[in-house]
Amino acid sequence: MSRDLHAQMVGREAELTRLRTSFGRMVRRGTPYRMTVLGEAGIGKSRLSGAFADSIAGRARTITATCVDAGSGRTFGLLHDLLIQAGGGSDWESVADLLDNKEPGLGGRLAGVLGPGDLKGPPQQFFGDLRRAFELLSAVQPLAVIVDDIHWAESTLLDLFEYVSESLTGPAFFLFLARPELVELRAEWSVGGERTDVLYLDPLGVDAIAQVVRNRASVDLPPADEQRIIETAQGNPLFAEQLLAAFANAETDAIPASLRGLLATRIDRLGPGERDLLRAAAVAGDHLSSEALEILAPDEARPFLARNLESLARKRLLRHTEQKGVEFPHGLIREAAYQSLTRRDRARLHLAFAEWLERTGDAPRDELDAVVGHHLEQAVVNQRRVGLASDAALEARAGTKLASAGSRAYTRMDMSAASNLLARALDLLPDGHPLVPTATQSLAEVSLPLGDHARAQELLLELSNMPGVDPVDRWLARLEHARSMCITGPHGMTADDLVAIAWQAAGFFSEAGHDNGLAQAIFLLGWLEQRGGNPVGAVNSGRRSLECAQRGGALREQFAAAFQISRNLIGGPTPVPECIEEIESLMGERGEPNPIVMGILARAYAMTGEFDEARRLLDRARPLLMERMRVRRLLAFIAWDSAEIETLAGDAAAAVSAYRVALTPFRNGNEAEHVGETSSRLALLLAAEGHLEEARELANEAQAVTPTDCVVVRVLAMMAAARSLPPGEIEASLAKAAAAINLVPELMPNLKADLLVEQSRVQAAAALAEDARSSVDTAITLYERKGNVAALRLLRA
Ligand SMILES: Nc1ncnc2c1ncn2[C@@H]1O[C@H](COP(=O)(O)OP(=O)(O)OP(=O)(O)O)[C@@H](O)[C@H]1O
Ligand SMILES: [Mg+2]
C-alpha cells in the first residue's frame, strides 16, 4: 500500500472513529472482529485504512496486504507475506521459528502449503493451522490485519479469512476494503453481526472536496475552475485529483462527466512517446521495475524514457517508487491505459513481458507459472480476437504453465484457484496434448466439491472416452460420473444403469486389486440402496466400502463411507442408542473427526432428547468442516442437521430458517435429491404453521425435482403436497397422505412415524378422529421401537 496514503486526509472523522471504537473494543474483549469497508473506486477506502493504521500505531501489530487482479496466482503468497509481518521479522525463518517454538511442526507445515517449503502432512490441516498461527501471533501482541482490494481475491482466500476471523480466539482485528462488487461474491459480508460490521463509504461532501482541491493545487486556481472541479468530482477525491491534474496541464476543454471518461481522455491527449510508455507499463501490472519498462517500451522510445517518465509523473499518471521502479498512482489509471491499447499491441506486449519474466522472474514457482501463464494466455486471446492464425506452440506453452500452477494449487487444496487455472489451461491446450487427461481429471475432481456438477459430469464423460487414458482412470471417471449423476439426476440414466456401472466397476477393481476404486464402487451401490429405501443394505455396503477405503488409504472414500453408514443407521430400524455407539466409533477414523458424521451424531443425540449435546456437536462440526473439508457447500449439510434437531426440539422457527439456509446451496448445485428432501421437510413445517401457499410451492418443487428412484424423498414430497392443499380439498389430501404412507419403506420406522403424524393431522382436519388417533398410536409404537424419545415427547406434549 504505497499509494498516497499519507497525504493529508480531509473529513472521514466519523468513519475513522467507528473503526477505532471497534478496534478498541476488540482489544478490551480479546476477541476477533471483522470490519468490511465498501465503496466505489477512488472514494478513499485505501486512504482511510492508511489513516486508521497510523492511528493505532503502537497499540497493535498492523499487517497489510493488497489483493491483485485475477491471474496472479497469489492466493497463498499474500498469506505468506502477512505471516512474515505478523512475526515481526522480515523473512519467513523468523516467523516459522516463533511458531515452531510454541507448537512444534506448525511453521514447517505452513511453509509447505504457503510455498516456501515442501508439502508436509495433509493440506486439510491448513485452515486449522493458519488459524492457530494467527492465534499464537495475536497472543504476543494484538493484531490488526488489513487487506485491501479484497474484491479481487479468489474465493479460497475469502473462505480462509472468513473462517479465521470467525473462529480464532484472541485479539485480532480484520479490516477488509473492497469495491461494492464484493457483495456479489460474499453477500454475508455486507451485513453486520455480533463480531462483524460493515461500513459503506459515501462520497465526500462539497466542503471536503473543496478542501482536497485546495490542498492539492500547486498554484492558485481561478475560482471558476475550482468550482467546476468540485462539481464534476461528485465527492470522489480521486476524480478531483485527476481533474486538478488536467486543469494544471491546460487539458480543460470538454471535461468528461465520469472519472473513467476523464482518464481515457487524458491518456488520449498524451504525446505519442508518453502514451506508448504508459500503455506498455499497463500490461505489466500496478508496479514494475525500470528494467521491465525498458523491455516493454518501443525501440524508438527508449532514448526518451527518462524524459517521458518525468512528464507522466508531473501529470500524475505514473510515479517513481522507492525501489527504483514505477507504479500507477491508482489502479483505475492502469485500467484506463490498458483499455486504450489495441488488441494487437496487447498480444505483443503480453508476450514480451511473459518472456522477460520467464528469464528473470524470482517469484516462487507457483506464482511465476501462474503469472507467466496469464501473460502468455492474454497474448493468445488477443491474437485470436484480431483474427491472427492460431499459434499452437504458444497455446501449448501457455496451457502448460497454467496447468502446472493449477495442479499445484490442487495439491494445496486451493480449490477455487485450481479450478480457475485448470479450466483456462484446458481452453488453451491443443487436443491430444499429453497434459489434457490429467488436467481434465483434476478439474473434474475440483468441480465436485465446488458444486459445479454439470461441468464435472461433462469432463468425466469426456475422460471416460478419451484415447490414451489408463483403464483404472477410465473406470474411476465412470464411477465419479455416476456418483455425480446421483447428486443431480440421474437425467437420462436410470437407477438400473447406475447399478450396472457400479457392479462392472466393482468387478474391474476387485480384479485389479484396487481397493480405493472398489471402495468407490461399493459406496455408489450403497447410495442407490439408500435411495431405493433400503437403509440396511446401505449400511452394509457402507461398512464394506469403509474397509476397502481403509486398506487403500483414500481419505475421501473413508469420509463418504462413514457418512453413508451413519446416515442410514439413523434412517433404518437400529435403535438410537446402538446407532450412537457405532457412529461415535466412526467419527474418529484415523484421529480426524469427520464433521459430516458429527452432524449425524448430533441428530442421534437430539433423538434421545439431549439437545445440548446435539447443539454442541454441531457447533464443533461447523468450523471443522471448513478446516478439514474446505468446502462451503457442505455447510448446507450442517444447516440441514440443525433443522432436524430444532424440529425435534420443537423450535419450528429455528428449523424453518435452517432449512432455508440449506436449500440455497442445494438449489444452486441442482442437487435434486437434497432439494427434494429439504423443500419437502420445509413445506411440512410451514403447512403446520398455516403458511399453505409457500408450502404448496415448495411441495410442487419437491415433486418436480425428486428423481423417481428416490423412494424416501418421493414419499416425503407426496406428504408435503397432501398437507399443503387448501382446506377445501380435504378428500384429495386424505388420498395423497394415504398413498404416501403406503409407499414408505418398511425398513424406515422413523420416517414412517413422522409421516403418520402428518397423516393424523390431515385426518383430524377431515374430522376423522378415530383414524387420526390410530395413526398417532402406530407412530408412537414405531418411535418407541426406534428410541426416538424427542419425537415421543413432542407427540405427548
Ligand atoms: N478523505 C480524503 N482526503 C484527501 N484525499 C483523499 C481522501 N480520500 C481519498 N483521497 C485521495 O483520493 C485518491 C483515491 O483514494 P483511494 O486510493 O483511497 O481510493 P479507493 O477507494 O481505495 O479506490 P480503489 O477502489 O480504486 O482502490 C487517493 O489519491 C487518496 O489519497
Ligand atoms: Mg484502494
TrEMBL record:
It comes from the Bacteria. Residues 9-166 form the Orc1-like AAA ATPase domain. This is AAA ATPase-like protein. PANTHER family: GUANYLATE CYCLASE DOMAIN-CONTAINING PROTEIN (PTHR16305:SF28), TESTICULAR SOLUBLE ADENYLYL CYCLASE (PTHR16305). GO terms for molecular function: adenylate cyclase activity; ATP binding. SUPFAM superfamilies: P-loop containing nucleoside triphosphate hydrolases, TPR-like. It holds the Pfam family AAA_16. GO terms for cellular component: cytoplasm. Gene3D superfamilies: Tetratricopeptide repeat domain. Keywords: ATP-binding, Nucleotide-binding.
